[in-house]
Amino acid sequence: MANITAAQALSMGADTIYLERRPPPIAPTGYYDWQITSDPSHNREGHSFVSNLISKVESAKAKGIYKPNLRDVDAFLQAVTNPTDIDDRKGAFATGLGILARLDPNSDLEKKLNDAVIGTLYNTVPHPPAAFLGPNYCYRRADGGGNNLQELDYGRAGTAYSRSVQGNAGLPYTSLPDAGLIFDTILQRKGVSIRLCLLS
Q1: What is the model's pTM?
Q2: What gap in Å lies between CA 77 and CA 83, rounded to an integer?
Q3: What is the pLDDT of residues 73-101, one digit of tens each?
């Protein structure tokens, strides 16, 4: 009993009074509705208001208090004013997830924010094209058509060839000439005989 804190003693006393005054269950199984539900938020009905409040405070204290700074405020303002052009380097999304983790998981605010975050994540990630079923789209045509389900003429014989995506890298190093050959061809001194060691 010496290890019980004042908050725990208050919580146990409030629960004792709450449980003493609560009417017995009316279900034939002898359980309350909140005892057999799968929703974790209903578990609060087994405790008093004071006990639930103490649990919320202790949980918030264990998760830590969010201390906003100007960088985070600027990142959130930029994300709100330009929702389609969010700068990931400012860390608005990561900070938002940190704040979301500190909220009560059973609160309506947390559920709405969680849905908004998941919706934002889903809408920012590119999705594969819609699938088409049927014999017309099962295979690529002999003339090269049907390779792209959105644009069936891409790659079809007899159509203009154009690059549909921008290149991100130059030529691979295997297709480039030897660096020594370039040096000897361009940087070699003119009118000087080449020695065996290729120094000019």
Answers
A1: 0.42
A2: 10
A3: 888 888 778 777 777 777 777 788 888 88
